[in-house]
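Bit of a strange request maybe. I'm writing a small parser for structure token strings and I need a real example to test against, not something I typed by hand. Could someone generate the tokens for this chain?
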Amino acid sequence: MKKSYYIYNNGSLRRKDNTLTFTNENEEQKNLPIEQINDIYVMSEMTFNTSLINILSQYGVPVHFFNYYSFYTGSFYPRERLVSGGLLVSQVEHYTDNEKRMELARAFIDGASYNIYRNLRYYNGRGKNVQSYMDTVEDLRKKIPKAQSIQELMGYEGNIRKTYYSAWPVIIDQEIEFEKRVKNPPDNMVNTLISFVNTMIYTKVLGEIYQTQLNPTVSYLHEPGDRRFSLSLDLAEIFKPILGDRLIFSLLNRNQITSKSFTKGLNYLHLTKNASKTIAAELDAKMQTTIKHRDLNKSVSYQYLIRLECYKLVKHLLGEKIYEPFKIWW
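Reply from user aminoacidic:
Good idea to test on real output. This should exercise your parser:
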């Protein structure tokens, strides 16, 4: 099975015949079999040339770039190999038709908010009293089918997440300063952790979209933009509670990530290299974990669950089957 490869040391990445070679600052080299790489995460300063871009495109390997603060800066998205003009036309039609767009946007928020509710229910059954937060989320979820605009829908989503985040100090065993979600820039260690993990989920979703005929720039809940793959944002909403939030709870409650994992002088804005490695390793392990899929009646990985979500969206766009978002059943 192909895996993600992370580069944390400064150096250069080059093509060597039909594979890759990474050379660090000490001139130490490591060969990377490109057939085994799903995507590459660059967490450092790196130089490369057009020869590298050509082989990455040939093998369909996306590259995601992060800056010193572990903030996502962008992706190299190889030329699409799976192209469907008919599907693209349908994608655009479902965006321009408000009723069709709202149907999908509601589905994304329905799935995301349900998975949020299940997270709360999970911890409520394990000695964390978050019943009042569950009740509020459940009441807000009832308003989702009635939303008539993206703005109204995003308002409900915002209130659901506000309620959800209010429960985090109860769920997390460490003493944390976390009153609300702050993004640009994050203002404490929990917000920094959320931003980093959410970005990782976004890139994982983008990698799975690449394996389908979907165009990643045409979206429904999030407004399509010039400099982002907004369909990844749509689908990531469903998987952030399942993959991202549960990972954060686990990392903090097991003390794998603590205040020492951040640079205090930068207001906890910067993750240490070891902390970033820990998060990436734990997320990749989760992505490869398998569960018994109740509809397919076979075991699939969490990574493949994202691919299946893309296929479900394709079927909806082509009029074959109404899209239903993935919801936790266990």
